[in-house]
């Protein structure tokens, strides 16, 4: 049975609360960045994505790349709500010695790739989707969440071209169009039709949604699963700092904990909760996929250069790659 809409809304509010609490406790971080994606993450983690909480790296699991890695506290909140991380860890986010760093790292068993340097996550998600579709013939889907400010990075558009060229229909790109970047409005702000035209020009199947409407998100992800021969872009119109009174959609709040406003914001968010106890949700099981052999990734023979040899770096690099491939065909 799918998770009901009210529960998905409730979890979104809990994600906001946890993100505010952790960043205020750390006195650093990006609570407004987390807030704009609360519904997107709630629907992905508690309705759409197939995965196992007990085995986050199950090869059949859907992948999620949080390319806007500075929203890490919201990602951690999801893994707290699904039961993998104890809630007591939330106060350690961004603290020295905690693996719950300001940006996700693969030291965490539910993170495949470190993100935070904007513009990189989509290229990596492409690689995952490419492998799933063409090498492993596996059924998992790859989701990649990018920011609108992040779209100023040229590498995003290179990756969009790649996904389209290779017809990665197992890739779902989600654009969190919260209008604001680091210091001001992004180039095209909330012009969703302009985004749509751009993605369509790259031959993506494109769906514009209200990114705070869980029903629209559920439908969009379901629709994406039916699209063949092209990747899907879900363009979510959102608000940075959503549900933070006095802060939502305002400039000058990027990368700042809420400080003196923490108490009033938490009071407001808590007043939105309908259920204080355990929520009932269903996480779909992953389908079977072959485990990838990533053992024996080493040079088939050691480098044989002599001191003083002059070798072009690209040749040395190429030789090393060939030797790696001789030990492991991945
Ligand atoms: C390559 C790179 N350049 C700059 C930064 C610094 N930076 C961190 S967040 C951010 C703004 C991101 O805006 P957006 O993608 O819209 O995310 P939002 O926080 O609004 O959700 C910038 C420029 C970075 N992390 N990586």
TrEMBL record:
GO terms for molecular function: thiamine pyrophosphate binding; transketolase activity. The keyword Transferase applies. The keyword Transferase applies. Residues 9-285 form the Transketolase N-terminal domain. Pfam families: Transketolase_N. Keywords: Thiamine pyrophosphate, Transferase. It comes from the Eukaryota. PANTHER family: FI06132P-RELATED (PTHR43195:SF1), TRANSKETOLASE (PTHR43195). This is Transketolase N-terminal domain-containing protein.
